[in-house]
Amino acid sequence: MYRLPGRQMKPDKIKARPVRLTSGCKRDVRTQFGALCYRVRRDKVQVLLITSRTNRRWILPKGWPIDGASPAEAAAQEAWEEAGVEGRVMGNCLGVYSYNRAEDDDLPCVVAIFPIKVKRLRSDYPEAAERDRKWVTPKKASVMLAEPELRQMVRDFDPTSL
Fold first, then answer.
1. pTM of the model
2. Closest by Cα among 114, 113, 122, 140 to 44
3. Residue from 82, 157, 52, 83 nearest 114 by CA
4. Cα–Cα distance between 7 and 77 in angstroms, integer?
5. Count of C-beta atoms within a 10 Å radius of residue 83
6. Residue 94 · residue 35 · CB < 8 Å
7. 133 with 49: CB under 8 angstroms?
8. Which residues lie across from 15 on neighbouring strands?
């Protein structure tokens, strides 16, 4: 499991710096880090999806950068807080996807995804009362997720290539 020592992500600690795009985008773009949590059962890959807190749609754990943490470490922290995941995070980014964060007046965000091999799921974790979790195949997950770039990334996920 990876947990930043003594840290819970608090709004006053978030240092998500905006990126200004010059291609006509009128809003700053924010960066987030997400986790593709996976396990292998009976030679079949499964990925963990969680529900969002607001509209209960299926998503991957993700959140803002954390000062002092690498992007992969921030993704692992989000996986713990949002899904109770303990596991081994890989430092290689699987890819990125974009979405508009509805909770913040459609704030444009780009999310870098890092794989985490799940060793254990805890039942007691910070957002346990606010989210549901579900193990599914990558193919099934790709149907359940909303963002097209994320769908393809999950559908094509192969842990043997890590």
1. 0.84
2. 140
3. 157
4. 9
5. 26
6. no
7. yes
8. none
